[in-house]
Request: fold
Amino acid sequence: RYDFMPLKYISKLRILHDNVPPMSGEEVKKILMQEMGGPLESFFSSLDLTHPIGSASIAQVHRAQWKSNGAKVAVKVQNPEAERLMTGDLRNLVVLAEFLQ
Reply:
């Protein structure tokens, strides 16, 4: 929010959650199979694990299509390192807040 602090700080803070490399397709597949309880082919007629729509510190999103009804969906997969990454982000925010005081 640009009304919250100067733009130069906002652009630096944006780096905290935008510059996270995406998980590999194999890692995403493993997480989804565990969460959904079976092979992904049972649930999706298509699932793009190669090119995530977006990737951030908490999760990434992939395009897919339900096998049952053909609906196009976005599949959001939480990064297993989310807690560690968010803790680092919060530490950086504390440092910034102390600096701004």
Remarks:
- The longest helix spans residues 82-100.
- The helical segments are 7-18, 25-36, 82-100.
- The beta strands are 44-47, 54-55, 59-66, 72-78.
